[in-house]
């Protein structure tokens, strides 16, 4: 059993506290800008200061994960964020937490997060046998999503009872505990890499370029994040207001349905053994496109909630096997860099997708039309993968 593995168990604990703390911090950050600083128009700038450095430094984090001990990178990332939260608590207590310090915390928080993810995803290959990677990633996906779902309501509840400084102090304690858990992980020692960073980058990109499987996996990430995640996420508030004529409860329930589907998908994959992962990914991608088309035509609150839950399950059913495949086929000395590229592709394309969908909406193209085009594109792409004799058939 994976949960009997001490190293993996401590990694799970660190991950859930990290995910939980980040989602709490992001909500408090936005709330502080709106209600304490009184500059709601700058919420987007503060969020950009948090997310953009994460994207920019993701590949650097992957290179360090291949050069240094991953458990130490995770430890220092968590410790850095905990120190930031302690400083934020002290500044908030003294009424010194103005916009500039908040932007500094946002940027540093994002950079630290960029080092955490490649190290966390690549260390799994050193702690878990290859045949258990899919289940290990399913557990990780589930607990991460739990943190994302539970963090904001818990943060909102804490803010209703405590001051900002106290909530920052609570996040500090959670991150500190998470970093201490990392100290108990016994990571196998690795050979020291002496080649230059430039050569490291070239080696990783060349490996991706010459691997048909990785090229297909990266293309799948591009299609999924550009044509699926962006249109779907932006459609939820629009559906809640204009098509379903609902209120805040309608919106929150639809979002919970989607997030709950991701959690359910992660749990289900923890019990399933997928032998033909390539065929599984293409089949789920096809189902995802069909479900997206059905969702675009839904005018029922109950049906929309069910379809969003199924679409959330599809997210886990694709992401977990893709990450497991990358971990399984990539040499261990390249795993951090390659995983950082895949994460960079997935994270970097989501804001681009948001921007493209927003421009289409401004051009008076309805969200229903956008969803239909996205659905058809995904169905066509997955059908080509199924019909063609590609590398996916061998894995």
From TrEMBL:
List all membrane-crossing ranges.
12-33, 39-61, 161-181, 216-240, 252-272, 301-322, 334-354, 360-387
What subcellular compartments does it reside in? Cell membrane
Please name the Pfam families in this protein's record: MFS_1 (PF07690)
Identify one Gene Ontology CC term for this UniProt entry.
plasma membrane
What InterPro entries does the database record attribute to this sequence?
Answer: MFS, MFS_dom, MFS_trans_sf
Top-level taxon of origin: Bacteria
The protein's topology relative to the membrane is: Multi-pass membrane protein
What SUPFAM superfamilies does this protein map onto? Answer: MFS general substrate transporter (SSF103473)
Keywords of the record, alphabetical order, are: Cell membrane, Membrane, Transmembrane, Transmembrane helix, Transport
Give start and end of each Major facilitator superfamily (MFS) profile domain.
Answer: 7-392
The molecular function GO annotations come to: transmembrane transporter activity
On whether Cell membrane is a keyword of this UniProt record, the answer is yes
Q: Under what name is this protein listed?
A: Major Facilitator Superfamily protein
The scientific name of the source species is Terribacillus saccharophilus
């Amino acid at each position: 059993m994976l949960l009997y593995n001490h190293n993996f168990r401590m990694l799970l604990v660190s991950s859930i506290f990290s995910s939980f703390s980040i989602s709490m911090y992001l909500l408090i950050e936005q709330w502080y800008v709106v209600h304490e600083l009184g500059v709601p128009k700058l919420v987007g700038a503060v969020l950009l200061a948090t997310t953009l450095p994460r994207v920019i430094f993701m590949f650097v984090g992957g290179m360090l994960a291949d050069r240094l001990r991953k458990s130490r990178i995770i430890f220092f990332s968590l410790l850095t964020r905990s120190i930031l939260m302690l400083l934020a608590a002290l500044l908030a207590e003294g009424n010194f937490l103005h916009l500039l310090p908040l932007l500094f915390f946002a940027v540093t928080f994002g950079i630290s997060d960029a080092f955490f993810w490649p190290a966390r995803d690549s260390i799994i290959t050193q702690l878990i046998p290859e045949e258990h990677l899919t289940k290990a990633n399913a557990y990780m996906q589930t607990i991460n999503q739990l943190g994302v779902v539970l963090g904001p309501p818990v943060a909102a509840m804490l803010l209703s009872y405590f001051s900002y400084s106290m909530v920052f102090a609570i996040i500090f304690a959670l991150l500190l505990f998470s970093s201490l858990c990392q100290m108990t992980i016994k990571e196998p020692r690795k050979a020291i890499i002496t080649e230059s960073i430039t050569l490291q980058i070239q080696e990783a990109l060349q490996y991706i370029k010459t691997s048909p499987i990785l090229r297909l996996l990266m293309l799948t990430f591009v299609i999924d994040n550009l044509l699926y995640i962006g249109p779907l996420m932006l459609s939820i508030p629009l559906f809640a207001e204009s098509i379903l004529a609902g209120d805040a409860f309608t919106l929150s329930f639809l979002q919970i349905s989607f997030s709950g589907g991701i959690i359910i998908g992660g749990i289900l994959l923890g019990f399933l053994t997928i032998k033909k992962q390539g065929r599984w990914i293409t089949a789920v991608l096809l189902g995802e496109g069909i479900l997206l088309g059905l969702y675009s035509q839904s005018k029922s609150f109950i049906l929309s909630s069910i379809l969003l839950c199924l679409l959330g399950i599809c997210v886990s059913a694709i992401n977990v096997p893709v990450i497991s495949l990358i971990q399984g086929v990539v040499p261990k000395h390249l795993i951090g860099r390659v995983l950082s590229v895949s994460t960079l592709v997935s994270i970097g394309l989501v804001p681009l997708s948001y921007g493209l969908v927003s421009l289409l909406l401004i051009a008076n193209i309805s969200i229903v039309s956008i969803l239909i085009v996205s659905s058809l594109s995904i169905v066509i792409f997955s059908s080509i993968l199924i019909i063609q004799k590609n590398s996916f058939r061998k894995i």
